[in-house]
Amino acid sequence: MKKISLRLFILIFAVSLARAQDAGTQQQIDKLGGQLQDALAAQELQGKRLDALEKQISDLADKVNTPAVNNSASADDLKALAKQVQEIDKKRQDDRDLILKEIEKLGKVSGGTPAGHKPKVTTETPAGGDNPPAVPQKGYDYTIAPGDTVSAIAKAYRAQGVKVTTAQIIAANPKLNPNALVAGKKIFIPDANAK
Predict the structure, then answer these.
(1) Which of 66, 105, 168, 193 is most buried, by the most CB atoms less than 10 A from its CB?
(2) In 3D, which of 175, 133, 168 has the Cα closest to residue 150?
(3) Residue 161 belongs to what domain range?
């Protein structure tokens, strides 16, 4: 019985030892399986990184191989240019409106002989008499009214039958600045028909 007991004890010990080895082996297999999965995940991540780096290198190579163009505009440049064009267009429209208002004023002024100014025949020298003409001229004295222009004055006199141009008025009044008429100043309106 001692022999059977001893054999039974050895058998139980061997079975438990085998089971312990199987459990240890299984743990090692599980551990190795986990490490293998981690290594595969790391390899996949490295593959993605390599693909991204290859794409960046390819893009950089394309940029290096593309010739530099100095006359190209960026999107910001185009936006700034569009803004400037809009500002210029707005100023152009404002100028147009101002010109139309001035034309309306001229139309009202040049409807006939300027109000309160009846042309009179005179043989005086032109206003600003520093440069009198060589031959005395016949024509009319005219006192500039607010809002008058040389062309409106010439048109008003032509409507009264006096043949005169803006150029003739300017020539007869050498000190006259046609772009800045001074209200109240007298000018000379020449008349080639007056005798």
Answers:
(1) 168
(2) 168
(3) 121-190
Residue whose token pair is 């000190």: 175
Tokens of 192: 């080639």
Q: What is the pLDDT along the chain (195 residues), one digit of tens a residue?
A: 677 777 777 888 777 777 777 777 778 888 888 888 888 888 889 999 999 999 999 888 888 887 665 667 788 888 999 999 999 988 988 888 888 888 877 777 655 444 444 444 343 444 444 444 444 468 889 999 998 999 999 999 988 888 899 999 999 999 999 888 988 999 999 987 765
> Which residue is it, tokens 């312990």?
20
Q: Which of 173, 182, 174 is nearest to 147 (CA)?
A: 182
- CATH code for the domain in which residue 154 is found: 3.10.350.10
Task: Give the 3-state secondary structure of residue 186.
Answer: strand
Is residue 88 one of the residues assigned to a domain? no
Task: Point out the domain boundary residue: 14, 42, 63.
Answer: 63
Q: Which structure tokens are listed for 177?
A: 């600045």
Nearest Cα residue to 151 out of 117, 114, 186: 114
